[in-house]
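help with these C-alpha cells:
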Amino acid sequence: MNHSVQHSRLIQIMVLSALMAFTSLSTDIYLPAMPFMQLDLQGNIELTITSFLIGFAIAQLVWGPISDQIGRKKPLFIGMILFVIGSVGCALSETIYQIIFWRVIQAIGACTGPMLARAIIRDLYDRVEATQMLSTLTIIMAVAPIAGPLIGGQILKFTSWHAMFWLLAMIGLVMFFCLFLLPETRKKSDLKITIKQAFSNYKYLFKKWIFIRYVLALTAFYVAAYTFIIGSPFVYISYYHIEPQHYGWLFSINIIGLMLMSFINKKLVKHVHLHVLLKYSSMLAMLAMMTLVILFFSHFMSLITLVVLLFVFFSMNGVIAATSTAAALDSVPEIAGSASALMGAMQYGSGIISSILLTLWRTDSAESMIVIMAIFTVLSALISMLPHHEK
C-alpha cells in the first residue's frame, strides 16, 4: 500500500470515526448537567434523550433507503446542516418543550452519521475487513463518550449547560466541511432502484432471520447500555453524591474497557467466527449483570463493585456491536443502506425503551437501573446463543 493510499485511508477512518461518534457526543456531553437542567427547565430531563432517540431511530428508516437510491454523501451533507440547526435551537431553549423539539431536529441530522458510516464501510470492505474496520472506528470514536462528560463537567464549572449545545453546533459545522474528504461509495449501477423499491427492503429484512437475529441481540444489549447511560448520572451524582465534574471519570472507565475489547476483537475476528465471538461476549456481559443483581439484593454492593461489574458489562460492547453489525450487514450486502438504517433504528431506538422504563420505575437507589440492565442483557445473551445457520 503506497503512501498516498495510506494517507487517504487514514483520512477516511478519521472522518468515519467522527460520524460514528455523533450519537454518543450529542447525549454524553450533557450527562453531568442533567440534574441541573431538570431544575432549570422544570421538566423531566430524561425526555430530552427519549426525544433525541425517537428522532434518531425514525429518521434513519427514511435516510437509509434514500442513500441506497441517491448515494451516501448528499444525505450526510443535509444531515450535518440539520444537526447544526438543532444544536443552536437547543442552546437557545428556555423551556423543556423547546429543547425536546430541537433535540428531535438535532437527531434527524445526527442519525445520518453512524448509519451511513456503517453503510460506507460495507460498500468498501468484505465481512472480516468490515468487522476489523468497525473495531478500529470503535476504538477511535470511543474518545467522544470519554471526552463528552469530562468536557460537560468542566463547562459547568465556568458557565451554563447552554454552552454545551453551542459547542455541538460548532462541531457539526466542522464536520460539514470534513465530508468533502469522503468519496461517494455507492456505485452508479446500484442507484437504479426507485425509492418505493428501496423502502420495500424493510419487509424483506424483517423476514430474513439471519439478519434480524443479530439486530435483536444488539437491540436488547443496547436497551441495557442506554439504561446505564441515562440512569448513571442520577445513581452516581444524586445517590452516591459524586461531584458532576468527577462523574465523567467514572463514565470514562467503561469506555476505556470498550476500546480495549475493540482492539482485542480486531485481532480475534481473523481466527474466530463472528457468531462465536458474539455469543461468548454476550454471556460474559450477562454474568457480570447477574452478579450485580445478586450483590445488590443481598446488600453486599458497594460503589466499587458497581463500577467494576459495569466496566465488564460495557467493555463487551466493543465486541458485541462490531460482530453483530458486520454479521448482519454481510447477510444483505446488496441493500446495506436500508439494512444499516433498520439496524440503527432498532439499536438507538432501544434507548426509548430504557428511558420509558426508568421514568416509570423511579427509585432513590440503583435498583431500577441494575434490574432493567440485567433483564435485557440476559435477553441479548439468549438470542446470541440460538443455533447459527449460514446464509
About this structure: The mean pLDDT is 84. The first helix runs from residue 3 to 20. The chain has one domain: 8-180+204-384.
